[in-house]
Amino acid sequence: MTRAVVLELRKMRRLRTGPIVVLLVLAVAALSSASQFSGGTRETFDDPTAAPWAALLLTYTMMAAMTSPILTAVLASRQTDIEHAGAGWTLAATAGYTPGVLCRAKVVALSLVLLPAVALQSLLVIGAGAVAGIRAPLDAGPWIGYTTLLFLLDVAFLALHVWLAATVENQLVSVGIGMLGAFLAAFTLLIPSAVSRLIPWGYYAVIAHAAQDGDVVTYQTPPYAWIAGFLILVGAVYAFVTRRLDRIER
Amino acid sequence: MSAVITTQGLTRAFRNHTAVDSLDLRVPQGVVYGFLGPNGSGKSTTMKMLLGLTRPTSGGITLFGRPLTPASRIDLLRSIGSMIEAPPGYGHLTGLENMRIVQHMLDLADAQIDKALATVRLTAHRDKLVRNYSLGMKQRLGVAMALARDPALLVLDEPTNGLDPAGIEEIRTLLVELASEGITVMVSSHLLDEIDRMADVLGILSGGKLIFQGTRDELFEHSTPDLVIETPDPGAALALGITATPVSEGLRISGITKERTAEVVRRLAVAGVPIHEVRRVRQSLEDVFMDLTGRGGLL
């Protein structure tokens, strides 16, 4: 498996995976923190009871929900489409690497790229908040918790999109579903969490560590059991479907 | 001569048709084996089964004297270079980077990569992106990827597909050279002319069935060329009830045996029909091939 992951990292060369990730990270950080520089928001920066960091985390959650499904779809699609275009499935199969192994390796390799990207994205948002002038102490717990769950959720959707891209040769399908997912993810931030839990992309809202009640933004504890259940389910389904991919004759 | 590939009743059936039907292949060691057949005759399916990429419905495959099974497949594939359907190659990488992928997959030495690139004369273009390669260069890169592991057997599916005559000649020369170095080459094509000048042994597939397997000379022995009877009076000959086609020189009779030829000549002579010459038409390999495959879409 390690060898297959290294192979995928080699294939990433010139796929512009890095620039795409950096662009999206910067865009999310910029969109999340833009409101921090408005006059009304700045008035709350010195008031811990106004929870300026929680408000920033909520904005970040919304921006990440709108962009992460698209980012994962695009990355997975680019990394998988090369196998269709370059007869890579057959080349790998004659060297003992089945399509299932390749797909699992792609998810691991892309996760290795996403891990520092998501961490950097959160740090940039925090950094922007500090630069904008938030003086209230940072509540590290919710930020770390959210960043960790955002990364794990991205990995889950990478898995979905790698499988889709491997199964359906037309990459518009995978990217199109990613765009639809982005809409659903943003939409589920506005509906009750109980409903969001039933929609895969709704988990971008379920992992939120901040919520708004009227004019007040507060930290909240997400339903960890549901999130863990969803991630385990995705892992199990992915293991099953990638084994089935091994039996597909191209 | 020992066989590198043998199959026993190899069959692959799909829901509504049988792509490969009871194939008994025998590919001797160190030869170029030309695997011929019209499009859709089952060549690619057969080759995929030989590489373990497609499961046979029934029958068995023996490679290098060992049965091909899920357990033995990986070990056997170490000695088999292949190119099936389209030539492999990641367009966004250079030729050398593609070869490094193969090197990493198979744990090969740098020298093996350099040698494979040199063999297909791609060393000078190794730093060019594959998406900018010509079709011929892509085919040669595919062959280089197959060669990198120093295979004892090369399985190439239509390696000259889409190439211009110069490219076809280049691949043909390369395969003959490889066979002279002791590598067994199994190469498929639907173009008879390509195979004719390089194959030592031919296997001809039609409708999923192996309709001929043997040398070129053996193939000719299988076919009965048309008989031409030169006569200035073909009408008189036809009036005798002889089944023949009038042609400019006289008459042409298909599928006639030596014994029947003697009988026809005797009847013409007795009837006083002037005979200037009786001869067999000189057949090209293509004619033989067409006869065998029933003109099933061959070029």
Alpha plus pi helix count of chain A: 11
Largest sheet strand order of chain A: 1-2
Helix-strand string of chain B: EEEEHEEHEHHHEHEHEEHEHEEHEH
Overall SS class of chain B? alpha/beta
- Helix percentage of chain B: 25-40%
Category from helices, strands and their pairing of chain A: mainly alpha
- In terms of DSSP E residues, the strand content of chain A is under 5%
Mean pLDDT over the residues of chain B:
85
Approximate helicity band of chain A: over 70%
Uncertain segments of chain A of ≥5 residues (pLDDT<50)? Answer: none
The topology string of helices and strands of chain A comes to HHHHHHHHHHEEH
Q: What is the arithmetic mean of pLDDT of chain A?
A: 88
The largest beta-sheet of chain B arranges its strands as 7-8-9-4-10-11
- Largest interface, with Cβ-Cβ < 8 Å? A-B, 23 and 29 residues
By DSSP, the count of extended strands of chain B is 15
Radius of gyration of chain A (CA) equals 19 Å
Distance between the termini of chain B: 32 Å
As residue ranges, the low-confidence spans of chain B are none
Shape of chain B: elongated
What does this structure look like?
The complex is a heterodimer of chains A (about 250) and B (about 300). Chain A is mainly alpha-helical and about 250 residues long. In chain A, about 70% of the residues lie in helices and about 5% in strands. Chain A has a two-stranded antiparallel sheet with strand order 1-2. Chain A starts with a helix and ends in a 5-residue tail after the last helix. The mean pLDDT of chain A is about 90. Chain B is an alpha/beta fold. Chain B has 11 helices and 15 strands. In chain B, a hairpin with a 2-residue loop joins β10 (about 200-205) and β11. The longest helix of chain B has 16 residues, at about 165-180. The model of chain B has no long low-confidence stretch (mean pLDDT about 85). The interface of A and B includes residues 13, 82 and 93 of A.
